[in-house]
Each structure stands twice: as C-alpha cells, then as structure tokens.
Amino acid sequence: MIPVVVVTGFLGSGKTTLIGRVLRDPAFARTAVIVNEFGEIGLDHDLIAISDETLMALTTGCLCCAVRSDLVQTLLDLQARRQAGNIPPYDRVLIETSGLADPAPILQALITDRGVAAGHRVQSVITLVDAVHGAASLERHSEARRQVALADRLVLTKTDMAAPTDDFLARLGALNPGVEILTAISGHIAPEILFATADPGARAGRLTDLPASGASPFQRGEHNDAVESFVLERDEPVPGLALVLLLEALAEHCGSKLLRVKGLVRLAEIPEQPALIHGVQHIFAAPEFLPDWPSADHRTRIVFITQGVPRHFPARLLAAIEAEAMEETEAQQI
Question: What 3-state class would DSSP assign to 252?
C-alpha cells in the first residue's frame, strides 16, 4: 500500500515552502508530489520543478504531477506508470491542495474509489495555518474552517511574524477538538512528524460529522465567493524600482482583497535571475532571487487570487508606474 499525505491550508499559508524543504531531506526523496492549484497558471507547480511537462522530475529526485481534472485518475496513472517501470519508483504520495480547496471531497475520493483504495492509504492530513492572517481567513472563508476541521495535525506558520493568541488557538480547538498543533519555524519542521501515521478512525469521524459541501477541489478560475484568479504577464523586463512601487501600491490600495500574490519577475537589471515575489493582503515578503529560471519560460508571470480586485488593475497600475518613472528619467536627462 502506498501512503498518501494530504497537505492543505488557506492561501499564503506556506504549503509550497514547507513541501520544498521536506523534499530536500534525503530520507524522503522517493516521493511523488501531486499539485492542485486554483488559477489560470500553475505557478507553484513550476516553482518546485525543473520542467514544464505534466510529469516532472524535481531537483530532489522526487516526481511532481499536476492535477489537470481528476485526482483519482492522476493517482491511478502514476501507479500504472510506476508498476510498468516507466517512471522511477516512489515510496509515498504527497498531495498539495489549492488554498481554496475543501479537503473533504479529496478524502472521500481517496477512501471510496476502489481502484485508489486498493493500492493507497491516507496516512495523514496536514493543515497549515498562517499565524498572521489565519484568524481573518477562518472568519471570512468556509474553506479555511473546513481545512482546519479535517486536519490530523495543524502546523502553525509565520509565527516569527506574529505569535498566535489564546483566542486564535481556542478557535482552532473549537473547530477540531484535541487536534495536535505543531509549529513550523521559517518553513522548517521535521518531515518524520508530518509523515507520521494518524488515526484513520478519528479522521473518518471528522469527515462524517462535517456538513456536506458540493464544491469541487479541482475547480479553477471563478470561485463561488467572488474569489477569482488572474495573471499579469509581461514579455519585457520590469525595472526594479517599478516592481517595488507596484508592490507598495498594491498593498496600500488593495490590502485585504489580495488573498494571494505570487510570481516570477524578470527584472531589467538582472534578467537571468528571476525574482520570486509573494504576498498576502498587506504584507509582501522581500523578493527572493532564484539562481536560474525553473523552466524555459522567462516571462514575468504574477498570479493574483483576489476578492473584489478588477482583473485589469495590477497591469494598468504597473504601466502607470513605469510611465511615470520614464518621465522622471527623461526630465533628469534634460
């Protein structure tokens, strides 16, 4: 039986960062990762991989597969290719859900489909909870509450930026009484803790007690709570100053409407090294410069998942910032 670990958590909670660090542990290199994202472009899929094919080899020696439509078929296809010797063998499957996914349909599919259940077992469900924005996410989004309610273990992230309050911890306990709560320090946590087998009976009880949801975990694009995803794409490099001003303006004018912003930016000053940017609501992390582009696509691609931000706004804002910067430069040259 192949153990399956489901890693979920609301937008910006740090799932990709955590998974990337876990996979660097040599003891967990034989892992198949299935990535499901909400949006028009699967950027997380690109960031943890070294190819843009459907099935990819990771830099850690693991495999990565993008869910195109159906999780069950993806799992069965991987298993068939593993048995046929068409791909390297793997010891476990790790499913990274979209931040907007209700994990209940995923678990139901894993448990009830005969083909999947014959060769796989759910080992644990891990939910990441952002200590900075987690309380607001629980208040505003039912998906965040369901992710917490179905977890075998909760992992608090971004505790270096904000200490979880007693009220917040009590809220987590009310949603999932007795759940084990762990803390990831800067995205680090012992992989053996995450992959430890949880009680399947307790999980089944939580799944049974949870009110039904008809939402598909693999829905893309529009979301039924006015949440939508769009991408800002640019062929031409972006000046570094324009990027800084863009992020500042987005945080100031959009704030809480920015559920997640994540992207690779081709800067005019160092086009060969992409700048990885990510932010949630008013907070943007300092850009991280990758040593190389993760795929053959060297364009700027910034994925926005928002609630009430016009799709055209970020692109027009960037264009206005660049135009103003150009005018100032030309004026200084006169």
Answer: helix
* Contacts for 326 with CB less than 8 Å, ≥ 6 apart: none
Q: What are the CA-CA distances from residue 197 to residues 14, 16, 114, 181, 268 (Å)?
A: 22, 21, 21, 15, 48
The model's pTM is: 0.70
How far apart CA 22 and CA 19 sit, in angstroms, is 5
CATH number given to 227-333: 3.30.1220.10
Instruction: List average pLDDT for each run of 10 residues in the chain, which is 334 residues long.
Output: 92 83 82 69 47 40 53 86 87 86 84 89 93 89 90 92 90 91 83 82 77 46 61 92 91 84 91 88 84 87 87 92 74 57
| Domain spans of the chain, in order of start | 2-209, 227-333
Q: Which residues of 119-157 are buried (b: 16+ CB within 10 A; e: fewer)?
A: ebebbbbbbbbbbbbbbebbebbebbbbbbbbbbbbbbb
First to last CA, the chain: 72
Assign a CATH topology to domain 2-209.
Answer: Rossmann fold (3.40.50)
pLDDT of residue 253: 87
For residue 302, the cross-strand partners are 232, 263
Q: 124 by DSSP, 3-state: which?
A: strand
Asked if 99 contacts 10 with a C-beta cutoff of 8 angstroms, the reply is: yes
Edge to edge, the sheet with strand 55-57 lists: 55-57, 63-66, 31-35, 92-96, 2-9, 120-130, 153-157, 180-183
